[in-house]
């Protein structure tokens, strides 16, 4: 496939090229989330030109246990490289949780990954200390791929510099401290407000009783009425209290996806689950009665497999 590129599928479903296939190079991208409180990100690698429909799937990297935060706040670092033998290596990591995933693939001439080079996509967590890639990279000589504008809703920044240890995002350290401080101040303010309301709200004042000195109020004699028989109370059967049913709310993890023109539930299931046969799970999660009828620009929830 001439002029083919190695790239990823971004949030809007389009193909984002990273580097030319067959050319020894390395690239670094900083990705971010597109939904609030998003706890996992799946990075799908493809081989193609411009359209994702014509691109061939290579593999996926799944980063989980991302701390819940506002969209655009978490940073997932992706490093992709090709060595002299045509081996493709990709590594994704998230700094706060320490999650790291790696993928090493050899791509044949026909564009399909070799079966013996794919580690069954176990995606097991690699140790964060002492990790070295399967092949070393030299410094780039400046002959990188042409600049491609990143998608505004998926990429926060891009950079080709390596090594990565010199770039420590300061805002990722400061932001949790600011959030904690704001929560503490908010709780203190709420407590002070409740205290002030309980102590300073005016209540009803009881009128004092006045004694009437030596004055004795004369009352007319009241004729005695015959005693009224006291009714005998009937025994009542106490009913056992009925325990209230607790509603257990189960939160399903997943991501939101905006349907593009030409998408089908089979294609969406293949993109997120690597198989089209889980389209029924997506339809059931979004109350879609007829899986053959979906509408463009509609947002649907993709649960975690």
UniProtKB/TrEMBL annotation:
Superkingdom assignment: Bacteria
Compositionally biased region (Acidic residues): 129-163
Gene Ontology MF terms in the entry: ATP binding; ATP-dependent protein folding chaperone
TM stretches of this protein: 177-201
Sequence segments annotated as region (Disordered): 89-163
Keywords: ATP-binding, Membrane, Nucleotide-binding, Transmembrane, Transmembrane helix
InterPro entries: HSP70_peptide-bd_sf, Hsp_70_fam, LysM, LysM_dom_sf
Listed Pfam families: HSP70, LysM
Biased composition (Basic and acidic residues): 97-109
UniProt keyword Iron-sulfur, yes or no: no
Domain LysM: 255-302
Protein's name in the database: Peptidoglycan-binding lysin domain protein
């Amino acid at each position: 496939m001439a002029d083919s590129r190695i790239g990823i599928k971004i949030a809007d479903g389009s193909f984002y090229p990273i580097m030319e296939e067959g050319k020894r190079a390395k690239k670094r991208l900083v990705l971010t989330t597109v939904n609030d409180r998003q706890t996992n990100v799946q990075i799908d690698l493809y081989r193609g030109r411009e359209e994702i429909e014509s691109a061939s799937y290579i593999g996926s990297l799944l980063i989980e246990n991302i701390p819940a935060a506002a969209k655009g706040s978490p940073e997932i670092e992706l490093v992709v490289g090709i060595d002299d033998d045509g081996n493709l290596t990709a590594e994704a990591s998230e700094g706060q949780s320490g999650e790291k995933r790696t993928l090493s693939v050899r791509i044949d001439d026909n564009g399909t990954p070799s079966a013996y080079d794919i580690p069954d996509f176990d995606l097991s967590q690699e140790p964060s200390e002492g990790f070295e890639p399967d092949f070393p990279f030299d410094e780039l000589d400046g002959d990188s791929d042409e600049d491609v504008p990143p998608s505004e809703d998926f990429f926060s920044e891009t950079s080709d510099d390596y090594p990565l240890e010199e770039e420590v995002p300061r805002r990722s350290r400061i932001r949790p401290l600011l959030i904690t401080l704001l929560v503490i101040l908010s709780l203190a303010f709420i407590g002070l407000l409740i205290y002030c309301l309980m102590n300073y709200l005016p209540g009803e004042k009881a009128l004092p009783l006045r004694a009437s000195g030596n004055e004795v109020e004369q009352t007319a004699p009241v004729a005695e009425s015959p005693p009224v028989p006291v009714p005998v109370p009937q025994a009542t059967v106490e009913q056992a209290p009925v325990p209230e049913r607790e509603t257990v709310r189960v939160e399903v993890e997943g991501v939101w996806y905006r349907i593009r023109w030409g998408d089908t539930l089979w294609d969406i299931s293949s993109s997120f689950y690597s198989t089209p046969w889980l389209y029924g799970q997506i339809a059931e999660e979004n109350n879609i009665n007829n899986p053959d009828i979906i509408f463009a620009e509609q947002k649907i929830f993709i649960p975690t497999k």
